[in-house]
Write a structure and sequence with these properties.
Elements: H1 4-18, E1 23-28, H2 39-46, E2 51-57, E3 60-65, E4 69-74, E5 80-83, E6 92-98, E7 103-107, E8 114-119, H3 121-131, H4 143-150, H5 157-162, H6 172-181, H7 195-214, E9 255-259, E10 262-266, H8 278-285
Bound molecules: zinc ion (ZN).
């Protein structure tokens, strides 16, 4: 599933190609993409408007068009945006025709990706505030902010990191990689983290997200860049999907367990399980 670095990778590629261009037409071949709005509503709102800025917030890509009309795109599990994809590229759900003759298309085999509309700056702010917490690469993401968000939370820190209303944009891959680097077991209750651990986690989240962006994202399913190229951060994973391999720090075996309902990869020597979690995690690893 595309996470912050994958969405940011696509955004950086597309921004120079799309900003300043007028959307000539939207061809929505799968109405489920924009439910509950009918395709005509998006076409009417966006066709003929210039895209002023391509922005990202969490895992959302925001097409900010003229008159404060914003298209909010979420790639979900398998969505990819391609620039000038060859005719016949499968799983096309939407095609955006630009005024310079080029086109963007949204391809999505599992069809969970969405397109939503916000009309007016206030509607956009409400939409984002209702869904997304602090932006981890932005200035508001500090150790203190992390401490405030985590305070009193009994949920495992892995679930805390995946909750988009706490920290926006982190998903399964980058949560595992950040927790390993911060030497925190994913089942540790978020509210029980010490200040030094929160500081380490803050730094680790930024480090892994930036490393992911530098590598052009990770490709574990079908993620592709806007030009069809695949990201390479999967080659740099320290623990994610590496069960059975030696920990790069201590050499112990990396195990897979379940945390927050997701396959989770840890070195239980570097990331000491919290009291009471050891038995459960062992059982889950079987
Ligand atoms: Zn280790």
């Amino acid at each position: 599933m595309p996470e912050l670095p994958e969405v940011e990778t696509i955004r950086r590629q597309l921004a120079p190609l799309v900003e300043g261009r007028t959307l000539r037409a939207l061809e929505i071949s799968d109405p489920r993409w924009c439910e509950p709005l009918p395709p005509e509503a998006l076409q009417d709102a966006l066709a003929g408007r210039r895209v002023e800025r391509l922005r990202r917030r969490g895992k959302y890509m925001l097409w900010e068009a003229q008159d404060d009309v914003t298209l909010l795109l979420h790639l979900r599990m398998t969505g990819t945006l391609l620039y000038d994809a060859p005719e016949g590229t499968p799983y096309r759900r939407v095609r955006f025709a630009l005024d310079d003759g080029h086109a963007l298309s949204f391809h999505d085999p599992r069809r969970f990706g969405t397109g939503e509309l916000a009309v007016g700056a206030e509607a956009l702010r409400d939409f984002l505030d209702a869904r997304l917490g602090v932006e981890p690469l932005g200035p508001d993401f500090t150790t203190e902010r992390l401490r405030i968000e985590a305070r009193g939370r009994r949920a495992p820190v892995k679930a805390f990191l995946l909750d988009q209303r706490r920290v926006a944009g982190v998903g399964n891959i980058y949560a595992d990689e950040a927790l390993f680097r911060a030497r925190i077991h994913p089942l540790t209750p978020a509210g029980r983290l010490k200040r030094a651990q929160l500081a380490a986690l803050h730094d680790a989240v930024r480090i892994v997200l930036n490393a992911g962006i530098d590598a052009g994202g990770s490709t574990i399913d079908d993620f592709r860049h806007a030009d069809g190229v695949r990201g390479s951060f999967q080659d740099d994973f320290l623990v994610h999907t590496r069960q059975g391999e030696p920990c790069p720090v201590c050499g112990d075996e990396i195990v897979k367990l379940v945390a927050a309902g997701r396959g989770t990869y840890v070195c239980q020597s570097c990331q000491r399980p919290p009291r009471g979690a050891r038995v459960r995690s062992r059982r889950a690893a079987l």
